[in-house]
Amino acid sequence: MKKSVGILLLLLIAIGCENSDKLTFEPLQMVGEDCPVCPKIDINIPKAIDDTAIAKTINRSTEEEIISYLSFDAEEDIENLNDAIASFTDSFKELATRFPEDNIGWEAKVDGKVVYENKNILTLAMNTYIFTGGAHGYASTTFLNFDKTNAVELDNWELFDDLESFQKFAESRFRVQENIPEDKNINATGFMFEKDIFHLAENIGYTEDGIQFIYNQYEVASFADGPIVLTLSFNEVNKYLKNKIKS
């Protein structure tokens, strides 16, 4: 019996040590005004609640990303999410007043979640849908990668030791996935890479399945093609990463 209790205590200690590397989040939900002439706004994101520098960086970066979705005036001074929601609402109300015959409801929906975390790296995925009139709205996914040790957000190039070699490898895997012959132009099957040259997606993130690229709609293909997703296992890409992942 004592042996069993000892094993259980060791297991609980191991779990505690593992969880100590993880940040603590709580759900944050914000909605817009509820009125007949108001746009529909629904924001659901994780908020880091640890009293640490990295928690503050994550929350500020997340907030800035949402502000960029909801703001239509580059000159407008928007400092927080409440201001961003008010700005989006005011923009719609102004348009509805000027063109009441074209009064089509606007919509903004943001869902964020942590898709990867270890002791060094944390990645948030922001899934967004924005509709401000026209034939259809625009859905996109944005990855936000963070260096937990240095409490900074990382640009894509900062994820890799040898970006040029990684890009060549990623192109070869992209061609295999999308059935593009090696001896053909990257746009031979209908893609729309600028200047007929492969480039990495604007959104690259760590996930449990590996490094994932998401080419959002219009980035390299038509709207009808939807997002183009490429996932490369850590076993494949570890040699290119600054932060290696143990398999």
TrEMBL record:
Domain DUF3298: 164-234
Domain Deacetylase PdaC: 39-137
Name assigned to this protein: DUF3298/DUF4163 domain-containing protein
Species whose genome carries this gene: Flagellimonas maritima
